[in-house]
Amino acid sequence: MKDKKDAALNAARYQMGQAGDEPLPVDEYAQATGMAPVAKQKTPLQLHAEDEAWEVANSVLDEAFARGDFDHLALAGQKIDHITGNDDPDWWLKSMMRREQITGLGPPALTLRVEDEQMEQTLDHLPTERAVREHVEDFNQRIIEARRQLLGGPPVITALRDATAEVLAWQQRRARVTEPGPAVPAKRRWWHRKN
Question: Are 121 and 115 in contact (CB under 8 A)?
Fold first, then answer.
């Protein structure tokens, strides 16, 4: 029995040695896409094994379709944005940004507009007048730099902010929050009540 297996193995090795002189098939996909071909060419035996693997996978899929395993899937027939909208070459980047909730990226004109809309909330979180003034001055400086269009992009239409006016508005908002409300009489505990 072992001799038969060795003989078959030796025959296969002999055939592989003889087949090494044959030219390998051209990588049509690499030529069509302009990609460099695989550095190490595959032997005919490897190509045959890959073909068999594809045939097995396709037959398994065909059987699953026949059994109805793919009927009534959760998202069947629904549009999946990042897959169907493949006109955009950066679809994967945009979907990752949406999934990971990454913000603050983009041309300065757009990021400055968003920051301008959220300026009051940002300033309300700052602890001192000096911090508010520094933040507004930094914001104004970034607007001026973006208007120079050194990096390109859409035109910057965000207006400069007056640091003194922002500090006064910050103080007024802060005073409204810290104003004491009407005094609520303290509840008397049961052990302090008089009979």
Answer: no
